[in-house]
Design goal:
Layout (H helix, E strand, L loop, with lengths): L2 H13 L6 H15 L11 H20 L2 H4 L3 H10 L1 H18 L6 H7 L1 H17 L5 H13 L2 E2 L4 E2 L3 E3 L6 E2 L4 E2 L3 E3 L4 E3 L15 E2 L4 E2 L4 E3 L4 E2 L4 E2 L4 E2 L8 E2 L22
Protein name: Serine acetyltransferase
Keywords: Acyltransferase, Amino-acid biosynthesis, Transferase
GO biological process, one term: amino acid biosynthetic process
């Protein structure tokens, strides 16, 4: 490799002020989930003191991670960590409600432990809710890294800025995209391949509402695409699979995509080649 190129790279490394150990961030995430949900823990805590020590370790680890990006927006890391930890009881309550809702809505689910341990939808929601707390605190970069980590593991892409009520159910989940300014109410259920996206994409729209609103008790079936910041799906509506929607629908609506399916059969040819060698 040319020395001039190596020198240029070294100069860039010297200029870089970001200190984001992604591996430690993901480790923090998974240890936090294991602390909050016993079915996820690789081994049980031997006593309450051990659990308290883990909480203290995670608090210190989060402060260290936040200090790596503190220079970008100047948020106070210690106060941010304190507020984050104080919100964990409420976060736990919401995620338990999410898991129970998934169990209630999916006939294939037998136990809430099964949902927590093996359902990508629950994992994607859990990581989103953790990242969303940090996003609300104005923490840069880290929330997006967390949700993209979950995206890589589950195929579920939820921007940490989205506003999602609880309980929330993602069934299967692969290919779901939920944009930054999406607003989702309570008791909403999404199937795989759903896109809640922007009608058009331009940089000037950064601070505008670009993504749709789903009111309470909405169900969106597989492959549906709903676009636009002014698009509202009214409460108790059902959007069928493969629907493409860019306009508001009132409450209690039922929208389905009707495909034209033509089945034809050709007659068997008169000359059938049948031989052996």
């Amino acid at each position: 490799m040319e020395e001039s190129f190596l020198n240029r790279l070294w100069s860039l490394h010297q200029q870089n002020q970001l200190r984001i150990p992604t591996g430690l961030l993901c480790q923090f995430l998974n240890r936090l989930l294991q602390m909050l949900f016993p079915p996820l823990a690789e081994q049980p805590f031997k006593d309450a003191d051990a659990l308290a020590q883990e909480a203290t370790f995670l608090e210190q680890e989060l402060e260290s991670l936040l200090e790596g990006v503190q220079h970008i927006s100047g948020f106070p890391a210690p106060e941010t960590v304190d507020r984050f930890m104080k919100q964990l009881p409420h976060l736990h309550e919401r995620l338990i409600a999410d898991a129970q809702f998934i169990l209630q809505e999916d006939p294939a689910a037998r136990h809430i432990e099964e949902v927590m341990r093996s359902y990508p939808g629950f994992y994607g929601i859990a990581v989103y809710r953790i990242a969303h707390l940090l996003y609300q605190e104005g923490v840069p970069l880290l929330p997006r890294i967390l949700t993209e980590y979950a995206h890589s593991r589950t195929g579920i892409d939820i921007h940490p800025g989205a506003q999602i009520g609880f309980p929330f159910c993602i069934d299967h989940g692969t290919g779901i995209v939920i944009g930054e300014t999406t607003t989702i109410g309570r008791n909403v259920k999404l199937y795989q391949g759903v896109t809640l996206g922007a009608l058009s994409v331009a940089k000037y729209m950064t601070d505008l509402k670009r993504h749709p609103t789903l009111e309470d008790n909405v169900i969106i079936y597989a492959g549906a695409t709903i676009l636009g910041g002014n698009t509202v799906i009214g409460a108790h509506s059902i959007i069928g699979g493969n629907v493409w929607l860019t306009e508001t629908v009132p409450a209690y609506s039922r929208l389905y995509h009707r495909a034209q399916i033509k089945v034809s059969r050709s007659e068997a040819p008169e000359d059938i080649l049948d031989f052996s060698i």
